[in-house]
Amino acid sequence: MWLCSPLIHSYSSTSLSSRHRPNRHNPPPSPPPHPLTPPPRSSFSVKVACLIDLSSNLEVHCIERKTSFFFIHCDGSLTSGLNLSNSRSARLSTNAVATKQDNVTASTASKPGHELLLFEALREGLEEEMERDPRVCVMGEDVGHYGGSYKVTKGLAPKYGDLRVLDTPIAENSFTGMAIGAAMTGLRPIVEGMNMGFLLLAFNQISNNCGMLHYTSGGQFKIPIVIRGPGGVGRQLGAEHSQRLESYFQSIPGIQMVACSTPYNAKGLMKAAIRSDNPVILFEHVLLYNLKERIPDEEYVLNLEEAEMVRPGEHVTILTYSRMRYHVMQAAKTLVNKGYDPEVIDIRSLKPFDLYTIGNSVKKTHRVVIVEECMRTGGIGASLTASINENFHDYLDAPIVCLSSQDVPTPYAGTLEEWTVVQPAQIVAAVEQLCR
Amino acid sequence: MAQLTRRSANLLKPFSASVSATRHLTTSDTTPITVETSLPFTGHKIEPPSRSVETTPKELLSFFRDMALMRRMEIAADSLYKAKLIRGFCHLYDGQEAVSVGMEAAITKKDCIITAYRDHCIFLGRGGTLLETFAELMGRKDGCSKGKGGSMHFYKKDSGFYGGHGIVGAQVPLGCGLAFAQKYSKDENVTFAMYGDGAANQGQLFEALNMSALWDLPAILVCENNHYGMGTAEWRAAKSPAYYKRGDYAPGLKVDGMDALAVKQACKFAKEHALKNGPIILEMDTYRYHGHSMSDPGSTYRTRDEISGIRQERDPIERIKKLILSHDLATEKELKDYEKEVRKEVDEAIAKAKECALPDSSELFTNVYKKGFGVESFGADRKELRAVLP
């Protein structure tokens, strides 16, 4: 049973089309893919996120633990609806629709697309962009000969040379500054922070030079830089290596922030960020690098300002991003068993927020839970709460519940660290409380 | 600076009496003159260039014209600030003009210059106009950054001037990034990353120098040592005030920054060196007559005798004047008349800038993002366009 609900998108005030944001930076669209017959339903016993391409118009993304769930991206009206002449990528991610499946059988054999891990997806996106544009270069600590501390840049230095994949000394402030200076002349550097927390040393460069130069120069200089790196709470990495920099950077005017959570959106967002003429900060998560998923073979670029509908529902909107998405999905299973129908949205775009998707969801469910990994004070959740309250106050039946990490430095001890971040049980409890 | 002469010629058309004086001040005479710099250069891990500099009458007169214009502009900015037409911070460059003109004489517009906030004259040297300068200082939309940058954010992309930065020290890694891009595109140009004696103590400088030296980037770090980091004298801020030696493994050259010809020689030398061997540090021994900025009287940490002493002995414009007079390139009267013309020109530019409009309120949201992603901020239902950020 397929549930496909294209959301109404009034991009041009008259057209009624599936929710599809044109990507002005994308290359002209490739010819529409061949329609395939939908393959039989499948189930999996492995505990991984996997993507099956069921047809040209449908992609399935599933996370499975004990029972099986299917989340189908409804791509139907991409080919039928809008006029494609204004340069859109062939495969833009649109909203995902979920449906429950019982009794499914596996057939992994002739699935299109290829399976890979998240860090490999990042590398694939990076490599495709480096191939496409000779101005794209990477700078960071141990990105070249070592291959990257999380192997995202492995194999690139032998292929592109030391100048394009530059091993820098441990000098975040100045190599970020260097990247910005290079971007001012027209290069498109990608700065890798070995851990996002190290970029605190480059805060001056990111805030003043990266974010503000386009404005203070009256539009003369653009800074097409991508700053990326892993952040978030890992497995007992200690306080200084478990920081969530999105809360510190969110006020900087002039930058865009996105967070990836699956191999599919990691590759798409990486490509979009590199092609963007604005400075983009791409937040990855230390614990998500080994997620496996099947992604399409064709080239695709995602929209940087779009949120992802992970699981549509009716009772409550759960907004999340990055690693907390998986905690939420785990909690969602429990909630479904208990009879609730949560709608899960991965907001992906941390600055600016995709108020369109979020707004439509709030209007449908009237209850919001935000689950984030930032601290309670001044995190993304705090801003999102304020934003939703300001814009959708009339649609809310209850105050917004924001579940965030505790305002403490992340402790080393395993149990303590577990209590710092939001756990699925807490999410379940919060939803139950809210939906009373 | 043909542009300046053309402009002054145009402005003077109704005043036929003084036309001849100005025309005379722009000669196309290029017979070489050899001048000795005031002091020999001091090198650190490098053989310094010779003290004899080749110049031409044309060049000497252009030095005089440009420096007179810069001096006049800065003094006019002083009065504008006191008249509350310029607000915020205003850092004046008078006394240091020789660094700007000397550097320009040695390089092309394809080479990049980046500096901190004392950038008015360097902007002018790179080809900026007086109108753009004053309009930007007064926050009008005809300014070089559309009135949104201010005194500390002058930029001119087409002639390789990358600013104009408020936080000192941060421009040096940016400068090394410019050099990196030059090396990446293999275009045989160099970058001059300028900073002051105060900023010379920033860590990111050494980080940037390390990387530039590691990868042989064509970066030239220029320390404009005016001996005071705002109110702190260099001997109170730096254990080692020999800034040209601070590069350790990178060679350095100490230059008399009040002598435009010495600066020109040093920059030419540095450009050749940087293209072959990587970074070099130039220390320009210079002086600012004004305080650190307009809110600093400049006399609490130094004596007036010191200031007037330097003005008498080392003033850059006086030195060029003496050279011009001793080589009979112009008479005293002509030079004085030219200074009067410059004064008039600056006053006219200010009058014109005062008439310029302030930026429109819609300009608040322009240029936050480059057109493309994230440029439209919609209301909740996507129908209401809240703000367009073009």
- Share of helix of chain A, binned: 25-40%
Terminal Cα separation of chain B, in Å?
Answer: 36 Å
Largest beta sheet: strand ordering of chain A: 7-6-8-9-11-10-16
Number of helices of chain A: 12
Reported for the largest beta sheet of chain B, the result is: 6 strands, mixed
Q: Quick one: overall form of chain B?
A: globular
Number of E-state strands of chain B? 12
How would you spell out the order of helices and strands of chain A? EEEHEEHEHEHEHEHEHEEEEHEEHEHEHH
Shape assignment of chain A = globular
CA radius of gyration of chain B: 22 Å
Strand order across the largest sheet of chain B: 2-9-10-6-5-4
Poorly predicted ranges of chain B (pLDDT <50, ≥5 residues)? 8-22, 378-382
Biggest sheet record of chain A = 7 strands, mixed
Oligomer: heterodimer
Q: How many whole angstroms does the radius of gyration of chain A measure?
A: 21 Å
Query: Strand-residue fraction of chain B?
Result: 5-15%
Strand content of chain A: 15-25%
| Biggest interface found | A-B, 58 and 57 residues
Topology pattern of chain B, helix = H, strand = E: HHEEEHHEHHHEHEEEHEHEHHHEE
Number of beta-strand segments of chain A: 18
User: Helix- and strand-based class of chain B?
Assistant: alpha/beta
Catalytic activity (chain B): N(6)-[(R)-lipoyl]-L-lysyl-[protein] + pyruvate + H(+) = N(6)-[(R)-S(8)-acetyldihydrolipoyl]-L-lysyl-[protein] + CO2
EC number (chain B): 1.2.4.1
Cofactor (chain B): thiamine diphosphate
Keywords (chain B): Oxidoreductase, Pyruvate, Thiamine pyrophosphate
